Amino acid sequence: MKPDTSTEAGSIAALAIASVTAPHLITADDGRTFAAIPQGIDLRDVTPPNAAKTSKPDTIRQIVTLQTAESLIAYVERFKTPNTVLFADIDADTIVAAIDYHGQTDADLVVHKSVLTLPRSLAWQRWDEIDGELMSQLDFARFIDEYAAHFVSPKPADLLELCNNIQAIEKVDFRAKTKINSDNVDFDIVASTEAFSHVQGERLTIPTHFVISIPVYFGEEKRNIDVRLRWKKSQSEGLQLGVMLLNKEETRQEEFKAVVEKVAAGTNLTSIYGRLGA
């Protein structure tokens, strides 16, 4: 019930009630201002913009995911401590820099990490995909044509000529003849066909040994990889061709080790082959 302000007593009562119910401003030590609203209404934060002090963490808790060895080196160089350690997981293509790792006598939180999971290059992924797979003559010729730039030996121009010959005699019957002490396999053409005009002496000669140069990981240097020809002839599918990458896993491991050594040298840190637990 509101007091009657037409009387002196009512006016005094109204003033008293107003003084009790008026908001009270409270300023905290950190600069924030609160309005205390009486009679159980609420407590509102009415701090002016940018007036309050921002509380900062007492330690860095951060996991940063990086994509190149150079980025990992740059990040570690900015934040490393005398106890920072590199953990290299060769099975997962991953290098983890534990920035706040334990010292020899003092434990640390190990909550600041930078992680580099080396992405396989697109070229490596494509060759890995067809490694050991057999395909039709036409598909094989198309693949060689598309990725001729990856070849060191034979030369791309020779490969393109080979592709034309393979496509020209796609439906011809063959008899394979592998020469001793030779890097070639000869496929003697059995059936007579107008396609003979596209090959020398009714014989298709395909190298059994190739060398390609591709990067294992994105952004890293190219590596030479030996490749062997695979083939199979059947009555239902005809002549099928494919390739097999030699020492593929050894090449990947050698490249991973080279990247680890590059990061260790660039940051002047100890590298340990293993996996850092969560």
Please give a structural write-up.
With 278 residues, the chain is an alpha+beta fold. The strands form four sheets. Strands 4-7-6-5-16 form a five-stranded mixed sheet, with helices on one face. Strands 8-15-14-13-9 form a five-stranded antiparallel sheet. A three-stranded antiparallel sheet has the order 1-2-3, with no helix packed on it. Mean pLDDT is 80; it is low at 189-200. Helices cover 28% and strands 31% of the residues.
Number of helical segments with 4 or more residues:
6
Helix share, percent: 25-40%
Number of strands: 16
Strand content: 25-35%
Strand order of the largest sheet: 4-7-6-5-16
Could you give the distance between the termini? 65 Å
The sequence of SSEs as H and E is: HEEEEHEEEHEHEHEEEEEEHE
Mean model confidence by pLDDT = 80
Quickly give the structural class. Answer: alpha+beta
Features:
single chain, 278 residues, alpha+beta, 5-stranded mixed β-sheet, 5-stranded antiparallel β-sheet, 6 helices, 16 strands, 28% helix, 31% strand
Summarize it.
This protein is of the alpha+beta class. It is built from 6 helices and 16 strands.
Give the helices and strands, then pairings.
Elements: H1 8-21, E1 24-27, E2 33-36, E3 43-45, E4 62-66, H2 69-79, E5 85-89, E6 94-98, E7 112-117, H3 122-130, E8 134-136, H4 137-146, E9 151-153, H5 156-168, E10 174-178, E11 184-189, E12 203-207, E13 209-215, E14 222-234, E15 238-245, H6 248-267, E16 271-273
Parallel strand pairs: 4-7, 5-16
Antiparallel strand pairs: 1-2, 2-3, 5-6, 6-7, 8-15, 9-13, 10-11, 11-12, 13-14, 14-15
